[in-house]
From TrEMBL:
InterPro entries hit by this protein: Luciferase-like_dom, Luciferase-like_sf, SsuD_RutA_monooxygenase
Oxidoreductase in keyword set: yes
GO terms, molecular function: monooxygenase activity; oxidoreductase activity, acting on paired donors, with incorporation or reduction of molecular oxygen
Leader sequence residues: none
Species this chain originates from: Arboricoccus pini
Record-given protein name: FMNH2-dependent dimethyl sulfone monooxygenase
Taxonomy of the source species: Bacteria, Pseudomonadati, Pseudomonadota, Alphaproteobacteria, Geminicoccales
Alphabetized UniProt keyword annotations: Flavoprotein, FMN, Monooxygenase, Oxidoreductase
Start and end residues of each Luciferase-like domain: 38-367
Amino acid sequence: MSLTDMQRIVSDARCQPLQPGDFADSPLSIALRQPTLLGLFLPFHHGGWSASSLPRTTDWSFDYNAALALQAEALGFDLLFGFSNWQPKGGTGPTRTEQGLDAFIAASALAAITHKIMLISTIHVLYGPWHPIHLARFGATLDHVAKGRWGINVVTGHRAYEHELFGWSQIEHDERYERADELLRTLERLWFEEEPFSYASSRGTWRFKDAYISPRPRFGRPVLVNATGSDAGISFAARHSDIVFIASPGGGDIDSALGSLPTHTARVKAAARQEGRSVRTLLNPTLIVRETDREANAYAQAIVDHADLVALSGRKNLRSDAHAWRGHKHDDLRFGVGGAIGGNVQLIGSPETVTSQLLQLKEAGVDGFQLSFYDFAPDLAFFGERVLPLMKQVGLRH
């Protein structure tokens, strides 16, 4: 039976084509055999997730990120993401936000130098707007280059200035997901229809005639990811995504995360089950790990003491209608996405302490961790040497 025939059968049965997880030999299926997914959030922009001037090696250059990618792959990581940033000029020194790489292009370039790790390109799919034929063609090509290891982190854009950057007023929150839903449904058709077809978007933003995309993605379609905390976003994820980026609804400290995540992760997974699907949840913690809790907390405090107040103030003042981070303490320099330390949750302590925290988060319904660090290269090496073996001991990794 051909791949197209298989896709047709599944499409008729559940109104959607085969997905990467339906193939036992797909990179996604192989990764999901791990008890916990493990990814690295590459610092494609200066400073990565952290707004602090404490000296470090972290750099936005492609060479630096390529070395991190190879380091993560050697450690057995499953995923690589890059932060996508349209932020205007702001901050000082090492946290100047205008310096950085495009996440789509940079992640794509890594396909040529990596061999096993999945590469997820963060793309704001409504900016432009993207024409589905462009995105389907680019995606199919990258799937071919990466041998099925490429995917899209679908972002609709929650900051008003980004929409204004592209020449219009901010699109209302739920409407963004309606537009993204139509785009994703069209992309899936372009990736599996065996005959050319024509289509016009319901809002008249794009149309095409007799479209046919080749080569076809190797495992049905590329891996799909989205980050969300809203009803509309969770509904979108339930219909389309393989992996759902989540934030702790209660805040970025470990106690708040453990208190709020069980209900939240259960809600996300229940929404997918209602669509006849399953999803995995992925959390983005920043890890500050040293040999002892005391050393780790001292280092974390040093990062906060060197906070880039200009950058933090600028980020705080950007209008956003995102739901996922509403419980985070944006006035506390330690907390909040993109703060002095950064990350959706901050894990600070010895290798034993951080491993215990990861295990507790797993028990709270988190299926994987997309890690970020303050000083990426040495901190990733320390993680591989001291934390990863403990994760294997407690059953978080094979």
